[in-house]
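Ticket opened by: R.M.
Priority: normal
Category: complex prediction / small molecule

The reporter submitted a protein together with guanosine-5'-diphosphate and asked that the result be attached to this ticket for the collaborator who will pick it up next week. Submitted input follows.
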Amino acid sequence: MKMLGNLGENLTNTMKKLAGMTVIDKKTIKEVVREIQRALIQSDVNIKLVQSLSKKIEERAIEEKPPKGITPREHVITIIYEEMVQLLGSEAVDLNIDQKPFKILFLGLQGSGKTTTIGKLCKYLQKKGFSPAIVCTDTWRPAAYEQLKQLTEEMQISLYGDPNNKDALDLAKKGLKEFKNQKVIIFDTAGRHKEESDLLKEMKELDEVINPTESILVIDGTIGQQAGAQAKAFSEATEIGSIIISKLDGTAKGGGALSAVAETGAPIKFIGTGERIDDFEAFNPERFISRLLG
Ligand code: GDP
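Result attached by the on-call engineer:
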């Protein structure tokens, strides 16, 4: 029960209280739940999510008897962990490149870390033996193409883009043609428009033209409560297949991203942990939960 250890450490005070008890009464459970609530709110988890989660934990902890050989304390921690995993969608899910072409539509607001994350994912895929190609459809940020050009040259990745073409859909169509024999094609998109509704309209149109195998949404781990609304907006343009949370190297705990998971039903597959290309990890629910509660 390695994972329980981590969670236990993070709820130290409460766990100390629970440690010596053979019977855990309602009062103690309510105290534990209150402590969890405090930790989650501090980690930017949406208040409604916190409420529904703590209600479930409390009900189960009061009603369920610990299985044989499990102490009441371990049992309560197991319930906390299980309910949080449930909320996160599922346990670690990999990006499964299971068809050709595998077309990835990358979405995210400007500054979310989308372009950096594309570089990181490419490196990850290269290590697995794939040679991804990138299509730049961001016609709004003049530096977008240059940023990708530099990145792809360093990594020896094929890039299609045309800084003089201002038609994102045309770029996507031409990119599809250019890379019709590639196994993995990644489409970088704009993160800014004159109006947010225009951005989402463009994403919807790109979704129709590209027909992505998987749409990946990049969420800045430091944005807190806005994550849910962002995810909801993007999921109206395309079906979000997975989420990557960037910038989890700072003090932010990324709890806001839980609302993105709740809104889209999509699992978090990776996290970004720094500005460098290797600062990228497969999502580990246990570590994430432990961090939220810490
Ligand atoms: P885009 O506008 O969404 O394409 O964002 P960029 O990829 O250009 O990233 C915006 C800023 O966030 C840059 O300064 C990146 O170096 C930084 N950034 C991206 N991912 C991470 C991360 O995981 N950690 C940190 N600390 N910074 C990141």
